[in-house]
Predict the 3D structure of the following.
Amino acid sequence: MNKIFSLSCIVTLIIFPTKAFAYLDPGTGSIILQAILGFIAATIASISIYWTKFKSLISKLFDKKKENKKP
Amino acid sequence: MIEESGSFRDPAGTIFYINDRIFRKINKAGLDRINFLEKENIIEESIKRKYLIQTKILNDDEKNKLNLNISDVILEHIKIPYISYPYEWSFNQLKTAAIFHLDFNLFLLDLGATLIDASAFNIQYIGSKPIFIDTLSIEKYVDGEPWKGHKQFCENFLNPLILKSKKGIKFNNWFKGNLEGIQTDDLDKILSIFDKFSYNIFIHVYLLNKLDQKFASNKSLKPINKKKNFPKKNLILILKQLKRFISKLEDHKSISTWDDYSKNNSYTELEENKKKQIVEEFIKKNNFNLIADLGCNDGEYSELSLKNGCKSVIGFDFDINTIDRAHKKAVIKNLNFLPLFFDASNPSGNIGWNEKERKSFKTRSKFDAILALAFEHHLAIAKNIPLNEVINWLVSLAPTGLIEFVPKNDLTIIKMLELKGDIFPNYTIENFENALSLKSKILSKSKVSDSGRIIYEYKR
């Protein structure tokens, strides 16, 4: 578990590196955390996009059935 | 010209004062920043939306008049009535400032800019309203960059608020002891496993601390500067999520002695009206800009002073719950009244780098007058401070003011001495008057209660 955690942190460190020049030290932990948060947010966002698409598809199908029933 | 000793952290600019006016010299490191802000009209827009303190860039004529170097870029800011620090704020004052900071950053991101830090000291209160004072904390937003101020935001705002909200521990004395705020590893140790069930606490306290610990042991000194890949929409999501979380945080209040003091005190309505009349007359006949209300409680006399012509009042009280109540009152009634947490027997000192970074209460005390009503006995009796020292200290705070003497036979003192016993033979009205007349001229004295409370008006 510990190894997996370290590995995921190193991977995120490579993907989302820190900027070297700033008068304030943002802290490596904070940068990694933001990358993780960003990942979570992006995942939730994509799920919600697919969910919306799925819902609209269902509702379209439902509407078509309704229209077909109309005389 | 006096240089501000607390403005060294960002090398992009330096604050200095000339005749009570406040200026900011933009150093070489800050020129790009200020050019960007000017070009994109960001200073003006931020002022218009009441986020940023009134600021103007001096023209050559103005610089000439002040004997300043024409080639320097210099900003002038309007003066704030009283500089306060986050360790003097109540829970809701810090909460309002935190939300204000996040809102301002979201507003700036919309304009293509962002805040480079998240210091709570960059927010000041004018009455009940927060305002951002550090123009150079705004810079161009570079796409893909993470939020540099995140860690500082946690230590300066989020952690103190969680500490008070979840554990009921006042952040004030802790914050005063460490100007960086409440550190995440300290908070993590205090919070229970149940507290960490909250998504935001888990992420911004537990996980952040774990990551910090992991990387603190990473000994590599190799600088990392690769492709930036942190989309703006993610940054906005984090800011909005934090705002939602902080907005829902509630103060964890414990019952305090002074909770219902303004309703439940030892004087009658008639006596209270007399007291109010004295304050009214004192304020009306003078034209005060700034007064200090010591032991302000929920701000009854502060409000009365504002109604009678005083421009702004800073209230001081030992009880954090009453400060919070007074602040809420100031917000609801839109009063130019700033109540602050204050222990008169241990006021804020000169602290920080070189003991000059954050100023003491005394250094910042430039009041036109003081109101010290039902106050001196909390020092002379409750804290054992010799009566003459209390008077000397009070008179040193402002050239004029009202000081109420509370005699030993008053109910509040009887209660205070119940367990302690009367160990104060020098606490007499004669000694009070002697001490006061040694340091000032007594202009008037009025008896305000049957127990013998007397309000003295002094002038230095």
About this structure: Residues 9-21 of chain A have pLDDT under 50 and may be disordered. The radius of gyration of chain A is 22 Å. Residues 2-69 of chain A form one domain.
